[in-house]
Structures are given as structure tokens and as C-alpha cells.
Amino acid sequence: MAVRKTGAKAATAAARVLNNPKATKAAKTAAGSALSQTGRAAKTGKVAASAAGKALSADKTSPRGRKAAGSALAQSPRKKAKPEGKSKAP
């Protein structure tokens, strides 16, 4: 499995989001998560992933905020798919 880290462009965008007083709380949470993962392998936690999702779905999130949120979500653990054909339905 490939190690995912926040790249330089996403880290710059995240830093700008954190310095923007008009950025939403969700965007700042996602940006903080993305920025904390710069240069090291780490995973985005549930709270930060939820905030990143909210930031991506909000109309007022800036392009930089979306980039930071996308980076944070890209580093979140993936849910394992349920095996098909093992239904408990009668």
C-alpha cells in the first residue's frame, strides 16, 4: 500500500486556510489535519475526516480549503467493503 503524505502544494494551501480569518471551522480543521501530515505517514482521524467532508460540501469553502480538505480525506483510512453474498435475509 502506498504511503500518503500531504504534498507541498496542499500544505501551502492548508497554511493559507489556517491564516484566513474568514475560513470556516470545518475548513480549518481539515487544513490542520492535512498540515500535520506533511512529510510523514499518518492517517486522518474520524473528526477531521468528518470536518473535511463538511468543508468539501459547503458552498462557501474556498478552493484552497477544498484542496486541504481533499488532502485530509485522501489520507483517511478506507472502510473495508462488506463481502457480497453473505446476507442474513431469509
Question: Could you write a compact summary of the structure shown?
Answer:
The chain has 90 residues and is mainly α. The protein is built from four helices and no strands. α2 crosses α3 and α3 (46-57) packs antiparallel against α4.
Structural class: mainly alpha
Roughly how many Å apart are the termini?
38 Å
Extended strand count: 0
Figure out the total of helices.
4
Task: Tell me roughly what share of residues is in helical segments.
Answer: 40-55%
Gyration radius from CA atoms, angstroms: 15 Å
- Poorly predicted regions are none
Instruction: Give the rounded overall mean pLDDT.
Output: 79
Secondary-structure element pattern, one letter each: HHHH
Strand content: under 5%
Rough outline:
globular
Largest sheet: none
Structural write-up:
With 90 residues, the chain is mostly helical. Helix content is 53%, strand content 0%. α1 (8-19) crosses α4. The radius of gyration is 15 Å and the shape is globular. The protein starts with 7 loop residues before the first helix and ends in a 16-residue tail after the last helix.
